[in-house]
Amino acid sequence: MKADPPPSHHSPLDIAFAAIFLLVAAVLSWKPLSDVDLGWHLAGGLWMLDSSSIVRTDPFSAEAAPWISYSWAFEIVIAQLYRLGGFQLLQIAQSICILMLMLSLIELLWAARVRALDCVPPSAQRVCCEALALGFGTLLTAPIWHLRPQLVSCVFFAYLLALRERNRLTAVRMLVLTVVWANVHVYWPLVPAVLALESLAPAPFPVRLRRIGLSAACVAAAIVATPYGFDTVSVLFEYAFSHGTAYELIYEFQPLSAKLWLMSGLVIVLVFLLVVTLRTVAKSETPGALLLLLALLGAGVRRIKFIPLLGVSSIPTLSEAILPSLVGRGCQANDDKLKHPASPRELRRLVIASVALIVVAIATIRPAPPLPEKYETLLDLVGNLHIAKENAPLEPSIILNDFNDGGWLALAIYLRGDATPQFRTSIDGRTLVQGAERLQQYRVFQTLGTGWEAVIEDWQPNLAILPSGARHVQELSTTFSARKEALIYRDWTLLSFPGRSPQAESAAQR
């Protein structure tokens, strides 16, 4: 591999636009913990902490279906943070992760500049092009600005591409990154993929062979260094190819459509720019970098969950190939004002101004509560339920109509601290991707009212909690003469089934 290029110098304009992007990220990152998957991750992490073991079967599903928790390390970390500081600390962790993503995107941008300019101070026009590229990529990553392992994956991916731009894909770095990433999120195959694609670049055969060998070594390291062994790899194929029904039910697996107008518009603009500047891009980008960008473009159009990865990978190409070729020679010339790095005095002024902006912004925005009202209400509702157990023939049950909220229901039940589970859920959502029978069950519930009736007949529940306004609330009330409790929230409806099992009594008060 080539020797590392000398370190680049950053002008005051560099630092100014970086501070602005960090300021925007700091303000937008302070928001409630509204991600639907956080309930699953936190419940799983708490279970692993309490049991001192790794999840092998889903402890929150009715059937205890097999489960590969590919984000187990992330789940344990957020569970420990929750134990230390509750949802408030998790909200802070969410903001920190979003700021880390922004920092990694800025580092990727500057790493791409090193490759393109060989450390020549950039012109003002080029810095503006870079700011546009960073803004474009940031908008595409915005959908995953939540406390979730996918956000951490985007940070790792930006770091990986920055190493590629700086020619620092060393064996130690790649193996360490793979091992950490494989225990945090399912996107770890991007490491061996980038290494394999880099073997397409013009280089002596031994160098290309070493890159392919390192790619294979990273896959082996992921298998050896994760608690699930070979299942870490095998589950990827099931996750990606085996359950087309899940892709129809889960929002993230939907194809790009006109309903997502901003995201669709940005992708269309990117495709247009690639077509217009294809000759320039082909000359300036390595074959591996171009193939990776095109692959993520196709994946993002087919499954919107890959759009954030497309946003990360588009930044180097936009900043150093597409936009400069459109702007023209102004990007190649050096502005006299930018020929020297910032002096210590200028740096101090910029830092002070940036900190002042952040302090003013944080002081003027309205503080966001840690949880949205919907999930705070669910935790309160389930936590305060008391079940009359006298002469109870069967355990009580909770039925949830929407698997997207199933994780928060599982968390609410777990936080009750019952010695033995008092509730069962007919839809857990967690095993949808890895359990074909769960898909069939969910499809029946969604399309046929008899699906709910079958569950009622089989389980004979004491009560049911459903989202208010759900289509099955009326069906359950009519078919089984369910009586609505006095406790009815804006987002949730509690139903009991007197005459079929002991009456559920609620001690929750408003």
Model description:
60% of the residues lie in helices and 4% in strands. With 510 residues, the protein is mainly α. It folds into two domains: 12-30 and 68-364, no CATH class; 373-506. The chain has a three-stranded antiparallel beta sheet, with helices on both faces. It has a two-stranded antiparallel ribbon with strand order 1-5.
Distance between the termini: 66 Å
Order of helices and strands: HHHHHHHHHHHHHHHHEHHHEHEEE
Characterize the largest beta sheet: strand count, sense, and whether it forms a barrel: 3 strands, antiparallel
| Percentage of β-strand residues | under 5%
Computed structural class: mainly alpha
SS summary, helix count: 20
Overall mean pLDDT score?
77
The rounded Rg comes to 26 Å
Would you report the number of β strands? 5
Residues in helices, as a percent range: 55-70%
